[in-house]
Each structure stands twice: as C-alpha cells, then as structure tokens.
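Duplicate of #3305? Posting structure anyway:
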C-alpha cells in the first residue's frame, strides 16, 4: 500500500500534471507552486479558571496579484499543511475565474461548539490583532472571508478590530469580506458559493456532446442529486438546484448519517426538520441508509460532496455511481481516487472551479467597499427612466397598453442581489467555457481538473512574465 500523501502535496501533484501540458519553464512552475509566506501563531486565552493556548495560521500562497484572498476556518482538523493546500487552491481559483487576487487561507484549530460566543469573540479578535501586527491583513494586503466554522458574525468582529487599529483608514471596510449586509457586506454573499455550484453544474449539463459521453441527456431539470453536507454551501446548492433548476434531491448526508428517498426530498422542509430535531434522521418519507459517507455511493446523476476534504478515497472510489461529481467542498476527492473516477468515466467538476462563487462575490463586495456605494445606486434610476421612455414610445406606436404589473417589471433597474447574481452567473459560465475549450483543444488532457489547472497556470505565468520577474 502506498503511503498517504499530504493535502498540499496532492495539490502540487495536480499542478505538476497540468504543467506537462504547458510550455511554462520549470523554474516558473516551481514559483507558482510554493507558498510565499506562512504565519504560525500561538496565543493564550482564558477559559473559565484556566488558560488555553490557541494554534492558528495564515498562509499567503501567491503575490502575483495583490491583495491575497482567502477564508478563515475554525476546525479541529486545521494544521499548517491543510492551510497551505487551501491557500494554493485559492490562487488557482482566483486565476481561473479572473478575480484579481493572489491566494491565501487562514485557520484556527478549535471546535467552535466548545466555546461560548464571548470566548469565540476573544479568539477572533486576538487572531486579528496578530494578523495586524504581522501585516497579514488589509484591503490592499490580505483580505480574509468566511470558511468552514465561521460566518458574517466573525467577519464583523475582524472588521471592528481592524478599524480600532487603523482608525481613519478610508478603505478599512475592505479589509475583510463576507460581512453582514448592515456592516458594509453585500446582498447575495451568504448563498454565493452554493449558487455558483448550481450555475457551474447547469452549464456543464447544457453541452449535449459531453452529456452523451457519460450517458445523460442535456439539461439540469429532472436530474437526480445527492448532497453530502447541509452547511452553507451544501444547503444552498440543494435548495437552488431544486427550486430554480428542477433537480430531484434523492439523498442527503450529514454527520449523524445519510438518508435516501427515491421520490425526492424537500430540502427546505428537511432543514426545518433538522433545526427542530437536531438531526436529518427520521425525516418523513426518507430512509436511513448508513453513516455520513453512505450517501456518496447512491446511484444518481449528480453527486455534490459539500463537507470536508478526503471523502472519496481509494477505499470507496470504486463504489461511486454518480455520472457527475461537483466538488463543492475543498479537496473531497483524493488524488489516487480521482484516477479511479476517471477510469470509470465519471465527470468531475474540480473544487477550485465549482466552489468559486464565494470568492467571486467577495470580490464584488470588496469592489463595493472601495467604491463606497452600493451596486446600482448610480445607474438604476437612469435606467428606469430610459426604459419608461422606450416603453411609452412602443405603446404610442402600437396603440396597445402594457399592464401595470408588466410595466413595473420591464422598467425597473436591477437590485443589488440581482446584479450580484448576474455577475456570478456570467463568471461561472465564462470560466467553464475556458476550461472546456482548453480540454477540447488539447486532446491529451485527460480530465477537467487538469484542464482547469492549465488555464489557471497559464494566467498566473503570464502575470509573472509581464512583471518582468521571468523574462
């Protein structure tokens, strides 16, 4: 049996594989791969009558674009290797979707459920203070965001701490994204990653030639889906796919186990049930089929692993029956399992493409913060008046009147969330088109993951060369 390789080494293997399909010089490939800065932090906090030493990290993987960008996760699994791997994936993700950031990631090695809100606030503010002292945060330096175990609340604490140290800095609100809307956040950010997953899957399934190869009809409506993880990403992917795409969700997995219903699961009702009971098990009309990984092996059209890394491994890869796997989580498929899935003819939408919705809308939030006004504020009224004028002219020329309801719809400008979703949709479609064309134009590229890495690396290499670092 081969020794298990680290998460970061696994990412490097993917990069080396992709590099063989490019003409990027080896020295530049090595620069693209390495993490530029790694910050290890240890600090004490008081818990009751005792003290604990908290272990934390912040990694800036690439400075080919500034600021660097990446979430902060709170989990007991956090270690330096994991944060380095996630930071590197952020670099390739940002390059792939044309978001002008370098990659970064942060993590605190705790289980948030073991601490009170006050203790979590203390940990968050102390961690932020350490980042400020080491110049690892700032709107033009490094911009954190939510990740596993964190959300808008923690981002608000980070913003408040930063502004306390950087009083009067005009762009200080851009030091972190994923903030509450009331604290200079942006509408649509909370569901952005899940919505991006939906847009990516929908675009993938729209290509008839590709679907024919894996035995599916084109289009997302009516397809069966299994989702592992009902956190922010998994729940929004399932809800939006069901409500807007007409997908039938037949399986759900959470830490307490997996459930299955061939007739479909109403995800909105399931989430309410889980809030009331603390579990997905026992949901009416579903059957309990095993532990958290059992649902991964269900026969379905689309499998969405949206929990943590290393969920599909050598141990269970042969039993995966999905036609398409959308890696909503980071690194849910190990490198050796990925090879097995390729041989089985399963199409894998790689994590750093399919879950790029979060960083895309974070970019929109950052732009909003730097411009100091909300999207649509300057142009919406102008657009409304222009549309009214056009509609009046059409009514005058045709002699027909448009109903009040239709008039309101046809003449209004886009709201902030509509503009955000429109930008996200365009980003995911454009990125998938680039990956697919790269794969089609180079018949030797065996899978979409490699094609996506090729796209990202070519863009990053171009940045380095244009900077004159690698003439």
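Output from current build:
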């Amino acid at each position: 049996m081969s020794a298990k390789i680290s998460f970061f080494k696994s990412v490097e293997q993917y990069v080396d594989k992709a590099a063989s399909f490019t003409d990027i010089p080896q020295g530049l490939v090595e620069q693209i791969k390495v993490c530029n800065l790694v910050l290890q932090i240890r600090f004490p906090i008081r818990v009751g009558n005792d003290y604990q030493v908290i272990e934390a990290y912040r990694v800036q993987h690439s400075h080919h674009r500034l600021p660097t960008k990446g979430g902060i996760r709170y989990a007991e699994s956090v270690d330096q290797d994991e944060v380095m791997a996630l930071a590197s994936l952020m670099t390739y993700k940002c390059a792939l979707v044309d978001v002008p950031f370098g990659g970064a990631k942060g993590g605190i090695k705790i289980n948030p459920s073991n601490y009170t809100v006050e203790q979590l606030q203390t940990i968050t503010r102390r961690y932020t203070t350490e980042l400020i002292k080491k110049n690892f945060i700032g709107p033009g330096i490094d911009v954190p965001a939510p990740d596993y175990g964190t959300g808008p609340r923690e981002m608000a604490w980070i913003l408040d701490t930063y502004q306390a140290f950087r009083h009067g800095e005009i762009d200080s609100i851009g030091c972190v994204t994923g903030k509450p809307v009331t604290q200079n956040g942006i509408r649509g950010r909370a569901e952005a990653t899940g919505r991006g997953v939906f847009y990516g899957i929908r675009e993938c399934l729209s290509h008839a030639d590709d679907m024919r190869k894996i035995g599916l009809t084109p289009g997302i409506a009516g397809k069966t889906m299994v989702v592992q993880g009902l956190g922010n990403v998994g729940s929004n992917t399932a809800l939006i796919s069901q409500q807007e795409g007409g997908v039938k969700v037949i399986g759900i997995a959470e830490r307490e186990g997996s459930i299955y219903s061939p007739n479909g699961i109403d995800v909105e009702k399931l989430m309410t049930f889980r809030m009331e009971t603390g579990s997905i098990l026992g949901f009416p009309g579903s059957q309990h089929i095993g532990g958290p990984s059992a649902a991964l092996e269900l026969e379905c059209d689309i499998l969405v692993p949206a929990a943590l890394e290393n969920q599909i491994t050598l141990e269970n890869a042969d039993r995966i029956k999905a036609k398409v796997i959308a890696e909503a989580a980071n690194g849910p498929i190990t490198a050796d399992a990925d090879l097995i899935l390729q041989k089985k003819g399963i199409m894998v939408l790689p994590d750093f493409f399919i879950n790029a919705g979060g960083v895309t809308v974070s970019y929109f939030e950052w732009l909003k913060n730097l411009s100091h006004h909300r999207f649509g504020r300057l142009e919406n009224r102008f657009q409304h008046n222009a549309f009214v004028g056009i509609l009046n002219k059409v009514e005058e020329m045709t002699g027909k009147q448009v109903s009040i309801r239709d008039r309101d719809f046809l003449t209004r400008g886009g709201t902030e969330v509509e503009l955000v979703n429109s930008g996200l949709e365009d980003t995911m479609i454009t990125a998938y088109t680039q990956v697919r064309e790269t794969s089609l134009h180079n018949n030797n590229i065996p899978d979409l993951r490699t094609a996506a890495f090729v796209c990202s690396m070519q863009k990053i290499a171009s940045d380095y060369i244009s900077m004159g670092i690698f003439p």
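Confirmed duplicate; merging threads. Residues 192-354 form a domain with the Rossmann fold fold (CATH 3.40.50.720). The mean pLDDT is 91.
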